[in-house]
Each structure stands twice: as C-alpha cells, then as structure tokens.
Amino acid sequence: MYSQRPTQPGSMLQQGSTAFPTPPASTAGSPQELEQAPLISVSTYFHPTANIIPYVDPDVVLASSDSVYFYVHRQKLLHRSSNNFANLLPSSSTSQTDLQPYVHNRSAPPPPLSSPPLRGSEHPNSPHQHHTSPSSRQPNPRPATPQTLLVVPERSDVLNILLLAIYNVSAERYAPSLDTLSLVPQAMIRYGYNPPELINPNTEITRLILHHVRADALRVYVLAGLYNLESLAVSASRHVRSVATITDEQALMMGSIYLRRIMQLHVNRIAALKSILFVKPDGHRPGQPPCDGTDQRVQRAWALATAYLAWEARPDMPSVEIAKSLAPLLDHNRISAVLNAWAHVKDTI
C-alpha cells in the first residue's frame, strides 16, 4: 500500500505550515548520501510515476493520518464528489487547463519511468515497500506539475481502498480486512460520494466485500443495510444463517427495512420447507400394486421423519440433510422431487 523513499534535502512542498518531502531527482546526491536521507512512506499504487492516467501527472497529494502519501488527480477526486472532496478542493472552472495531459512528443508518448527498485526483504504484494537509491532511474522528462497537499484524517489502509474505489481499480492484492472495508463507505460520504454509486455489482470494491460474505455474512448484510447497498444486501442475505444472532446494535445499524426483509426471508423459507415436506407420498413404489398395510407404514414413517425435519427446519437447511432423512422412505425420484422443490425456493431478500 505504501513505500518508503529517501528524500532530497531541501525538497519540500509547502502548504501553510505543513512541509511535504518529495522523492529526490535521479541525479540528486550519491547513493551513500541517499541511504542516509530520511525515508517517507509513499503509496505503492498512487506514487508520482505510476502513470495511472496516461500522460496526466498527479496534481494532488493526500497525506493519511499515519503519514503515507498518495499522488492522485484532482479530476478523479472531483468527478463524483458532491462537496468538492469535503471542500478541500475548489470546483475550478479553470481546471480544464490543469487537466490537459502533458505530451512530451506529440508523435510518441513520453518514455516510461522505471519503478523504484525494492529491497530484497519486500514482496511486490506487500502493503509497503522500502526503496533503495533511485540513481538508476531515468530523468523525468516532464515539467513539474503544481501539486496540492491535503492532510486527511483516514488511515492509509482506509484511504488506499477509498482511492482504489474512486479509480475502480482492484485492491485484491492488498487483501483488506472487513474492518477496513467497513470504514470506507463513511469516508465516501465525508468526501461527497454516494456509496451505492461506488459499491455496486460492477465495481471492484463490491467483489472485495463479497470475499468476506461466507465468513461473516451477517456483518456484510448489516453494512449493506447501513448504507443502502441493495445489491450487496441481496448477495449477503443468501448466506445469513440465522436472525436469532442479530444484536440490538446490528438491528439499529441495518435499519427497520432491512431487518424486516431478512426476517421475512427466513420465515418464508421455513414455511416453504414445511409445505414441501407435508405433502404425503403415495405409499407404494412404482410398478408394485398398492398394499394398504405398506401404505400405512410408509405414511407413519413419513409423518415421523417430516415432523423431525419440520421441527429442525432452518432457512439454510442443506439438501443432503433432507435427503438423508428421507432416503429410507422414498425412492430416488421422489427424493429428487422434494430436493428440487426446496432448491427453487427464493433464498435472497
């Protein structure tokens, strides 16, 4: 998520009393001097030479509460924000000039800038990297782009996922926890974004959250209800095993509408399962003449088995458990009919 780079003495970006150290130029100082320079933490994705938007240099630097720097683009931050990124960025009518990409050569794009090398102890998928001397990097052919430094209250892990959601880039390699993901929608609201617009079936952050649905479906459902994330709530509702474990706090967070919907889903599924089970079988097997005694024994055994299943009925009762209880009583075709009917009962809100 962030890397640590040596800074160049005297290379600072000023905003009021806030001083921001920038990575050194490729010709600045000897390797020994750079090794002794202080390190700053810079995002491994949103770094100065990332070229996220081709030929458009980042013009905003975000500093997280734990002092990790993210190089981003004003146009991206303002695109869907209803409050100018928490009123930190002006809605500039003059930004059209700022947003024009710098073209080093109109017949060919500027030469690529090599990524800073990693020390051997760091893995490429690590959330942070420690960079060695950048003396091997090519000189940057672009003119310096004016950059605005904004200090924000989010931790770097939350800010990283927020920015990746704004850019709609996969964050799977960072493997964010559900704790981190749960803080992102509130950060979206703070900066003027509508969570349902950024968290929907077509976005990468939704897939990240769904990675946690099997392990903690109820918590994902509560998160979806809290921010009215309908598609996420529908997906999570399939995996919520019980409404009996919902706490008062969770009920308040998801709200009355989503609470009623998940409870109604479970009530409906249990009722549907009982309805399927209470349809009595014919008693005799196909190809054999009916026998009253056999019919009565099968009916009694069926009544006992279905009474047990009905008593133990759960909205997520697996088909294998139903089949195991009915196997001594019915042939394969009839068991399959019961299981097929159960499989077609609606399992989402």
Could you characterize the architecture of this molecule?
With 349 residues, the chain is of the alpha/beta class. Among the domains are: 2-153, no CATH class; 266-343, no CATH class. 41% of the residues lie in helices and 10% in strands. The chain has helices at residues 31-36, 74-79, 84-87, 95-98, 156-167, 178-190, 195-198, 204-210, 217-226, 230-237, 248-277, 292-311, 319-326, 332-343, and strands at residues 2-6, 12-15, 18-21, 39-43, 60-63, 68-72, 128-130, 148-151. Strands 7-1-4-6-5-8 form a 6-stranded mixed β-sheet. Strands 2-3 form a two-stranded antiparallel ribbon. Strand 2 (12-15) and strand 3 form a beta hairpin. It is elongated, with a radius of gyration of 30 Å. The protein starts with a strand and ends in a 6-residue tail after the last helix.
Contiguous uncertain segments of 5+ residues: 8-21, 93-127, 130-140
Mean pLDDT: 77
Residues in helix, %: 40-55%
Strand order of the largest sheet: 7-1-4-6-5-8
Number of strands: 8
Radius of gyration, in angstroms, nearest whole number: 30 Å
Pattern of helices and strands = EEEHEEEHHHEEHHHHHHHHHH
- Measured between the Cα atoms of the first and last residue, the distance is 36 Å
Report the sheet-strand fraction. 5-15%
How would you classify the helix and strand content by structural class? alpha/beta
General shape: elongated
SS element count, helices: 14
Largest sheet: 6 strands, mixed
In short:
This protein has 349 residues and is of the alpha/beta class.
How is this fold's topology laid out?
Blueprint: E1 2-6, E2 12-15, E3 18-21, H1 31-36, E4 39-43, E5 60-63, E6 68-72, H2 74-79, H3 84-87, H4 95-98, E7 128-130, E8 148-151, H5 156-167, H6 178-190, H7 195-198, H8 204-210, H9 217-226, H10 230-237, H11 248-277, H12 292-311, H13 319-326, H14 332-343
Parallel strand pairs: 1-7, 4-6, 5-8
Antiparallel strand pairs: 1-4, 2-3, 5-6
